[in-house]
Design brief:
This protein has helices at residues 2-28, 137-152, and strands at residues 39-46, 57-60, 63-74, 79-87, 97-103, 108-114, 127-128, 130-132. With 153 residues, the protein is of the alpha/beta class. β5 (97-103) and β6 form a beta hairpin.
Amino acid sequence: MDKIKLDAWVGIFVAIGVISLLGLAMKVGNLTSNDIRETYMVTANFENIGGLKPRAPVKGAGVVVGRVNSIVFDTEAYHAIVSIDIDKRYVFPKDTFANIYTAGLLGEQYIGLEAGGEEKNLEQGDRIIQTQDAVVLEKLISQFLYTKASEEE
């Protein structure tokens, strides 16, 4: 009888561990935070998005104000078109800057919105003109090595 109780307790702890790991995986994958209600969609063009993925957070002043909806490649202009869903509670001027940043130890990339000063606000279907691409570590290292090599010549 004691062996059955011990096996039951082990089973309970294993089940709790599996559920905890599943919850952690969903949190890391941005699958749990759905507090965004009605949204309006805007787009932004980037030359390099790095590791940005759909459902990545969009932040304004560090607060999640939206999510990346989709990312497509424009075969004519050779850049990425990022569709962003922004919560209707938050309005941004038309001259807002969209920057791709990296956060945390896992290197999650997100879009940071920096409000401009224009009086008109972004609306459904508008395009954010001013963007800054993701900083790619490999590109920085290669530029540094190239600069050092050219100095030695």
